[in-house]
Amino acid sequence: MRQFISFTNGAEEYGVDIMAIREIKGWVPATQLPDLPRYMRGVIDLRGAIVPILDLRARFGGDLTEATPRHVIMVVAVGDKVAGILVDAVADILAIEDKDIQPVPDLEGGASHAFLSGLVTVQGRMVALLDLEHVFDLNAVADALAA
Questions:
Q1: Long-range contacts, 114-120 (Cβ 8 Å, 24+)
Q2: Number of helices (H), then strands (E), in the chain
Q3: Which of 11, 42, 73, 100 has the least CB density, counted as fewest CB within 10 Å?
Q4: Which residues contact 94 (CB under 8 A, 6 or more apart)?
Q5: How far apart, in whole angstroms, are the C-alpha atoms of residue 132 and residue 34?
Q6: pLDDT one-digit tens code per residue, 62-94
Q7: b vs e for 58-92, b when ≥16 Cβ sit within 10 Å of the residue's Cβ?
Q8: Residue 13 CB: number of other CB atoms within 10 A?
């Protein structure tokens, strides 16, 4: 049995392994830095640590999120780095058995399936489980921060 925190991004629902979550906090404007990928909102200061913030909607090819005080940042550990994901709202804590996680179908022209580790149906709703290693290209972000 594994636990996931689910959250919404528009009409879609996603999940992140609860063990990767470090903190969930309300939206605070990020400081924009030059030469970051379009989906990176910039960085925030989280108790002295500089944390890059990724806009999940933009990462998946959509428009930048019009962030409001209702949006949240999910601070997650990705490998040995910490980063934040801008999302609409946290939805639920899900307890999922590994056998209930379905593989992501390989759809023609759908490169975004690499961002997902699986799909699960919970109470009639589809939840896409994020593969944080693929969602974040932290090497590119680290290079931009060091420049």
A1: 115/59, 115/60, 120/15, 120/94, 120/96
A2: 3, 10
A3: 11
A4: 3, 4, 5, 6, 15, 120, 122, 127
A5: 24
A6: 899 999 999 999 999 988 889 999 999 999 999
A7: bbbeeeebebeeebbbbbbebeeebbbbbbbeebe
A8: 18
Give yes or no for a contact between 115 and 29, defined as CB atoms under 8 angstroms apart.
no
Residue 144 makes CB contacts below 8 A (sequence gap 6+) with 33, 34, 35, 36, 40
Q: How many residues does the chain have?
A: 147
**Per-residue pLDDT at 108:** 61
pLDDT (tens digit per residue) in 114-132: 788 999 999 999 999 999 9
Which residues make Cβ contacts (< 8 Å) with residue 5, sequence separation at least 6?
15, 16, 18, 21, 24, 74, 90, 92, 93, 94
Angle (CA) 143-23-121 rounded to 5° is 100
